[in-house]
Design brief:
Protein name: WD repeat-containing protein 89
CATH topology: Methylamine Dehydrogenase, Chain H
CATH class: Mainly Beta
Shape: globular
Organism: Certhia brachydactyla (short-toed tree-creeper)
CATH superfamily: YVTN repeat-like/Quinoprotein amine dehydrogenase
Number of domains: 1
InterPro entries: WD40/YVTN_repeat-like_dom_sf, WD40_repeat_dom_sf, WD40_rpt, WDR89
Keywords: Membrane, Repeat, Transmembrane, Transmembrane helix, WD repeat
Strand content: 35-45%
Distance between the termini: 46 Å
Structural class: mainly beta
Helix content: 10-25%
Number of strands: 29
Strand order of the largest sheet: 6-7-8-9-13
Pfam family, one: WD40
Length: 434
């Protein structure tokens, strides 16, 4: 990159050669040396970012799972971390049919299903250190944990909440020590409920009681929870009250634990961490807004807001690249770049680059889904993307791949009535809830 930048600088000087002839050598060196340095550094930086953007735009379908007999929305996706080098990864998918489906990560071959669960399941997560343990929150007020090595359909661990709890979000800390779930509002109460997750496979079918709750920081449904990728004591929560709260759960009480409160001015639909050492927090909203904050600026005089876009649909895509909704964010750690993933009701997937100066369309993935995309999971290991949608299809995208399956794609879009608690994508700002 440095060499490329230097050559580019030489090219600039060649272009200015007629002017250079009128200037003595000393003045030339003095005036243009800073220019050479600036151009060299900038060219290298842009080339690195452009390579990542080109790679994302070049994603192609590598695999397509065989659709189930009963079409269902694929609402959340997670992949396991292989326990040993060369061993197979697993994919877990949370479905609107109140079931969890497991697939082989590379072939997308269906392996098994945990079905017939009482209450709607919300989210799916593998344990970070054990590739056989998978979690999901339930509207019945429990978080269930299954061991995929077991032949039984029964969970090996149940984390029970309080009688009135209806869980609609959850996450597991990067150390696998803590499970946290967020509740719907019940009368005047909304809770973040915490459990000790140690020993989850030691006592089959055991039920664990909560360690405690946070109850004062949100006043409406807690729609999303996300633990920090490398700091197990940090967790961020988002709510329909518009607030995005960052907590340090090592503190003794909720007041001390609350590090920061950010306002998205709308209802939070997704959130995550980004930036160097993951010191930034971002969220998307149900009316397709986007907010981005820098927690590293909390103790400075600098503003923490990096970017706030009220409606991404109006600021990113031209008419021929219509954007109907956002799914969530993707932080590309190697490039140090945050991207958003959105799409259209016909199944096109838009990749959007985030910068403090605004958002820009990187590329569009076509020919995969035939309906709204509800979920995705990015794999930094092989730079691949898993996507799931309302057409009941699970797709694996890889750079420059050629699809191996010859199965003809069919439209499997199903009636929204099968899903009572799925996200609704508003098409008008008039419906924004402040």
């Amino acid at each position: 990159d440095v060499i490329a930048g230097f050559l580019y600088a030489i090219l600039i000087l060649v272009v200015f050669h007629p002017v250079v002839d009128l200037i003595d050598n000393f003045n030339l060196t003095y005036k243009y040396a800073p220019l050479i340095i600036i151009i060299s550094g900038k060219a290298g930086e842009m080339t690195a970012v452009e390579k990542v953007e080109e790679q994302l735009a070049g994603l192609r379908i590598a695999r397509r799972c065989t659709p189930s007999k009963e079409p269902t929305y694929l609402l959340d996706i997670d992949t396991s971390t292989a326990a040993q080098p060369g061993s197979s990864h697993l994919v877990a998918v949370s479905c609107s049919s109140q079931s969890i489906r497991l697939y082989d990560r590379e072939t997308l071959q269906f392996l098994r299903e945990y079905q017939g669960q009482p209450g709607q399941l919300h989210g799916v997560r593998f344990a970070h250190a054990c590739d056989s343990v998978v979690f999901s929150a339930c509207s019945q007020g429990v978080v269930k944990c299954w061991d995929v090595r077991s032949a039984t359909q029964q969970p090996v661990q149940v984390f029970s909440g309080y009688p009135s709890n209806v869980f609609i979000s959850f996450d597991v800390s990067c150390s696998d020590l803590i499970v946290c779930a967020g509740t719907e509002k019940d009368e005047d109460d909304t809770f973040l409920v915490f459990w000790d997750a140690r020993g989850i496979t030691d006592c089959a079918s055991a039920t664990k009681e909560p360690l405690g709750v946070y109850s004062e920081s949100h006043n409406d449904d807690i729609t999303k929870i996300c633990f920090h990728p490398i700091e197990p004591n940090l967790v961020v929560s988002g709510s329909t009250d518009g607030l995005v709260n960052v907590f340090d759960i090592n503190k003794d009480n909720e007041d001390d634990a609350l590090i920061s409160t950010c306002n998205s001015d709308s209802t939070v639909s997704s959130l995550g961490w980004s930036g160097e050492d993951y010191k930034q927090v971002y969220c998307t909203t149900h009316d397709e807004g986007f907010c981005w904050w820098d927690m590293a600026q909390l103790d400075t005089e600098e503003p923490i807001t990096l970017l706030h876009v009220l409606d991404v649909r109006e600021s990113v895509c031209a008419e021929n690249h219509g954007l109907h909704y956002l799914v969530g964010g993707l932080y590309h750690e190697k490039a140090g770049k945050l991207f958003l993933i959105g799409g259209t009701s016909t199944g096109n997937i838009h990749l959007i680059s985030c910068g403090t100066d605004g958002l820009s369309l990187v590329g569009t993935l076509r020919g995969g889904h035939s309906a709204t995309v509800r979920s995705f999971c990015w794999s930094p290991t092989d730079e691949s993307l898993l996507t799931g949608g309302e057409d009941a299809q699970l797709l694996l995208w890889k750079p420059g791949a050629v699809e191996r399956s010859l199965t003809k794609k069919a439209s499997l879009k199903i009636s929204s009535s099968v899903q009572k608690r799925v996200r609704v994508h508003n098409t008008s700002l008039k419906s924004r809830k402040k």
